[in-house]
Design brief:
The chain has about 220 residues and is an alpha/beta fold. About 55% of the residues lie in helices and about 15% in strands. It contains ten helices and eight strands. The protein is globular and about 50 Å long. It binds 2'-deoxycytidine-5'-monophosphate (DC). 2'-deoxycytidine-5'-monophosphate binds next to helix 2, helix 5 and helix 9. Its EC number is 2.7.4.25.
């Protein structure tokens, strides 16, 4: 039987950093589902497709081969990790992630990965939809200000020009869209363990999750 760990939570709660570290500790493949939605937004933008052009977008998604190597998303043979994490893509991605037809296609790809590999998967609907029967489910939160602060530092480290106030506003807007969309909105699964990371450092969160996994619940 395959092992699966689901990590959900809002943007900037530390999901990907934590999932990568826990994945290394337990030898699980890290699947960053947000990266997959970002890749759809990237391809749609490259082809000048607005979120209303659902058939055309689905046809593009059909031709997208996605897998992960060293935690990076490889799209049709190309490492697109840097291209999908720009502020431009962050600003448009939720418009594409809210398309039900796109979600159906990506959820299927994500489940297929979980049948083949032991996975740790992060996103918004992993514990509630994609891996409803995951062995472990965690829901990470942090205040919007702390999450904006983390994104600001991360973009600064990559020499991407940005303003803290703008990032905070984007995070608040994205939270609203992610929790209010009609299909698979962000919400904590009833059986997920909630961890507020506002005043925890990365190691503290990893240790907390690791202890639950070791205990087997
Ligand atoms: O985690 P992230 O910021 O890279 O996610 C990018 C977008 O994709 C964000 O608007 C939420 C959406 N998303 C989603 O709807 N479902 C997922 N499983 C993962 C991400």
């Amino acid at each position: 039987m395959k092992i699966s760990v689901a990590i959900d939570g809002p943007a900037g709660a530390g999901k990907s950093t934590i999932a990568k570290l826990v994945g290394k500790e337990y030898n699980l493949m890290y699947i960053n589902t947000g990266a997959m939605y970002r890749a759809v937004a990237l391809k749609a933008a490259e082809n000048n497709l607005s979120p209303e052009q659902i058939n055309e977008i689905c046809s593009i998604v059909n031709d997208m081969e996605m897998h992960f190597e060293n935690d990076d998303l490889i799209l049709n043979g190309e490492n697109v990790q840097d291209q999908i994490t720009t502020p431009e893509i962050s600003n448009i991605v939720s418009n594409y992630a809210s398309i039900p037809e796109v979600r159906t296609m990506l959820v299927k790809l994500q489940r297929d990965m979980s049948y083949k590999f032991n996975v740790i998967m992060d996103g918004r609907d992993i514990g509630t939809v994609v891996l409803e029967d995951a062995n472990f489910k965690f829901f990470l939160t942090a205040s919007p200000e702390e999450r904006a602060n983390r994104r600001f530092k991360e973009l600064n480290n990559r020499n991407i020009e940005c303003s803290y106030d703008q990032i905070l506003q984007d995070i608040i807007e994205r939270d609203y869209k992610d929790t209010h969309r009609a299909t698979d909105p962000l919400r904590k699964a009833d059986d997920a363990i909630e961890i507020d990371t506002t005043s925890l450092d990365i190691n503290g969160v990893v240790r907390t999750i690791s202890e639950y996994i070791k205990k087997g619940k």
